[in-house]
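User: Could you check the structure of this?
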Amino acid sequence: MKALKMLGGLLALVLVGSGVGVVMAWAPDRPVETLTARWAPAPSQFVAIDGMQVHLRDEGPRDDPQPIVLLHGTSASLHTWDGWVESLKGQHRVIRMDMPAFGLTGPAPDGDYRLSAYVRFVVGVMDKLQVKQAVIAGNSLGGEIAWMVAADHPQRVSKLVLVDAAGYPFKAADMPIGFKIAHIPAFKPVMARLLPRGMVESSVLSVYGDPSKVTPELVDRYYELTLRAGNRAALTDRFSQNQPGAFADKIKQIKQPTLIIWGGQDHLIPPDNADKFQSDIVGSRLAVFDKLGHVPHEEDPVSTVAPVLAFLKQ
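Assistant: Sure, the predicted structure tokens are below.
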């Protein structure tokens, strides 16, 4: 208990030193059952995959020969794609899910959060839903998983959409405070019990180009889904198991038609990474949105889905 108090005090100093200026908040894990009413209404469903009850949504025409699979980034959820889905589901089958360690899916039973495990997971979801081949789009971590599926299982991916994707070693100009803390294993027992809402709000603000678009309802979503039992501990485990850029040499293997989308105000994964992807993936095309941040698909879904719709028609 004494050690826990010391860690809590140290965490408070980190938060104050980072400019968050929040009061520590007691916030124990919440059982998934207490979150589903708000965050998993229809058309949400839970599907048994690899020992997990995976929260997913499968929308649009079932006869679409090339479904679109959407993969979110770290600490996000399938809700990040709401805007894109509204524009896509009229003509396309669109599949999205909460990835292991995040959203309502929660932690993986085996605690394996290596990129190879996420690749197996995505292929497993496709197998479960009887999707032989798909267009795969991903943001940040989801983008890294997307291109790794394309490289390791090329027959399963017809086209690729990378949205501010991870993949190369990079130095963040501004990392969300939640990510900074999750990188420190010593804080793991503290963060299992404490989560200042202001810290979550600060983290979301840091990935948006226009802070005015960060609403209380948006912060609620990130905050409550972070509290899903096991997610905070799993986040620390995920960071400890992966090294940025560890598989960058595979990017040049990608042969699928690829669309790269980037926010010009991305302070987490700098925009020069977009140029690296375009250089390494032969024939790829790039769309940069100068005023948007690290999650441009969420910040301005109408503008950012436009090049996707055009890309799907080609």
